């Protein structure tokens, strides 16, 4: 039996860094949504664990035990042959590895019938827990506290990545002010897409300045996204380098994505709906 699970891109609509723990990990307050674009994990029972990485963004992604998909599957007793079809850029702030790991955990649970996640599952990455949620959520602590958020309307978006790898630890290291204000304790009720975008625009991604210091091209991506017709807001996701713009309608996002892709054929650009 072949089990297939979609691994959506994770987008940090907001990302406030509110402190740092003694062990170096940072305290976050983030509104996270998921895109209708992503990777695909498929697996079947086999004699030994194996992984093949395919798809348009497979270049450079490890196909060995360092891949989070492999590590997630290895937590179970059943050996499987896995195919990971990469459509998302890696080391890009959209949770590729974490989302792939979460999808693998779902697929393995489906295959084995196990109802409880194996020990170590959520230690695979800071974003794995939120990626297991697969719906808009508020993420706090170092990523281990996640709560679903109701009432966020589907948000039309363009995602753009300039092709530079931005390693997450380097960005956190370059962050100077680690005590940003959190989001309001109670998130507002959003009156439709326009109101939600207005509110998101009033929040921040505190990792933008240190990511731009690490990879200055990110400021070009943000400027080009903000200049697209109909763009209401441009912001970076996670630790970068992927940035997103939000639009009032999916038609506007589709047209803007086509325009940006034409201007920057060397960038990864896609329209998406975030939920
Ligand atoms: C920045 C975010 O993308 C926001 O969603 C995530 O918190 C990062 O998630 P991730 O890539 O799955 O992160 P991990 O692979 O667990 O951590 C990579 C590195 O980022 C730093 N890190 C990560 C999460 C966190 N709350 N504080 C940190 O300081 C640590 O140096 C860690 O070694
Ligand atoms: N399934 C995977 N897909 C992509 N990269 C992976 C995967 N498993 C392990 N890696 C390794 O992890 C590194 C980080 O990739 P990933 O796509 O998880 O980025 P990220 O920027 O840390 O995501 P985020 O910060 O949004 O959680 C890559 O450079 C790659 O070598």
UniProtKB/TrEMBL annotation:
A molecular function (GO) held by this record is: 4-(cytidine 5'-diphospho)-2-C-methyl-D-erythritol kinase activity
User: For this protein, what reaction is catalysed?
Assistant: 4-CDP-2-C-methyl-D-erythritol + ATP = 4-CDP-2-C-methyl-D-erythritol 2-phosphate + ADP + H(+)
Q: Give the Enzyme Commission number.
A: 2.7.1.148
- Where's the active site on this chain? 10, 127
Key words of the record: ATP-binding, Isoprene biosynthesis, Kinase, Nucleotide-binding, Transferase
Q: Which InterPro entries match?
A: GHMP_kinase_C_dom, GHMP_kinase_C_sf, GHMP_kinase_N_dom, IspE, Ribosomal_Su5_D2-typ_SF, Ribsml_uS5_D2-typ_fold_subgr
What Pfam families would the database entry show? GHMP_kinases_C, GHMP_kinases_N
Binding sites annotated in the UniProt record for ATP: 89-99
Instruction: Tell me one GO biological process term.
Output: isopentenyl diphosphate biosynthetic process, methylerythritol 4-phosphate pathway
Q: Which domain of life is it from?
A: Bacteria
GHMP kinase N-terminal domain residues:
67-128
UniProt pathway annotation: Isoprenoid biosynthesis; isopentenyl diphosphate biosynthesis via DXP pathway; isopentenyl diphosphate from 1-deoxy-D-xylulose 5-phosphate: step 3/6
Which top EC class is named for this enzyme in its record?
Answer: transferase
Positions of the GHMP kinase C-terminal domain: 202-263
Q: Which family does it belong to?
A: Belongs to the GHMP kinase family. IspE subfamily.
HAMAP family per UniProt: IspE
Q: What does this protein do?
A: Catalyzes the phosphorylation of the position 2 hydroxy group of 4-diphosphocytidyl-2C-methyl-D-erythritol.
**Descriptive protein name:** 4-diphosphocytidyl-2-C-methyl-D-erythritol kinase
From what organism does this protein derive? Maritimibacter harenae
């Amino acid at each position: 039996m072949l089990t297939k699970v979609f691994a959506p891109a994770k987008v940090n609509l907001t990302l406030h860094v509110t402190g740092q723990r003694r062990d170096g990990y940072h305290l976050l307050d983030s509104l996270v949504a998921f895109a209708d674009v992503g990777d695909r994990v498929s697996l079947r029972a086999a004699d030994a664990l194996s992984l093949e990485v395919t798809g348009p963004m497979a270049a450079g992604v490890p196909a060995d035990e360092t891949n989070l998909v492999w590590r997630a599957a290895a937590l179970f007793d059943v050996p499987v042959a896995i195919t990971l079809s990469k459509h998302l850029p890696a080391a890009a702030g959209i949770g590729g590895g974490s989302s792939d790991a979460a999808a693998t955990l779902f697929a393995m649970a489906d295959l084995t019938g196990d109802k409880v996640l194996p020990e170590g599952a959520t230690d695979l990455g800071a974003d794995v827990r939120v990626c297991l949620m697969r719906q808009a959520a508020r993420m706090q602590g170092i990523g281990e506290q996640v709560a679903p958020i109701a009432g966020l309307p589907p948000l039309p978006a363009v995602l753009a990545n300039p092709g530079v790898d931005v390693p997450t630890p380097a960005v956190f290291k370059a962050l100077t002010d680690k005590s940003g204000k959190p989001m309001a304790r109670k998130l507002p009720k959003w009156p439709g897409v326009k109101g939600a975008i207005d509110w998101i625009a009033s929040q921040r991604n505190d990792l933008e300045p240190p990511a731009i210091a690490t990879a200055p091209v990110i400021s070009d991506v943000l400027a080009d996204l903000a200049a697209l017709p109909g763009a209401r807001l441009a912001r970076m996701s996670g630790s970068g380098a992927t940035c997103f713009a939000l639009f009032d309608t999916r038609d506007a996002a589709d047209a803007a994505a086509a325009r940006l892709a034409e201007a920057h054929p060397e960038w990864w650009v896609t329209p998406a709906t975030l939920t």
